[in-house]
Design a protein that fits this description.
By secondary structure, the protein is mainly alpha-helical. The protein has four helices and no strands. The two termini are 17 Å apart.
């Protein structure tokens, strides 16, 4: 939530957001991020981007 808010507020740019999000996903429990399709990170990013857009409105 804090990362999303910082990005929405313009405190960090997209590159920094992506880097921090990748780090968060890497530290998640493997069971939590285990997805046979292998697209968990993409789904998380898309969800965060939608939320950021909603916050910016």
């Amino acid at each position: 939530d804090a990362l999303r808010e910082r990005y929405a507020n313009g405190d960090i740019d997209e590159r920094e957001f992506e880097r921090k999000l990748d780090r968060l996903l890497e530290t998640e429990d493997a069971e939590t991020v285990d997805d046979p399709a292998g697209d968990v990170a993409d789904r998380v990013r898309e969800g965060v981007r939608r939320e950021v857009e909603r916050l910016r409105e």
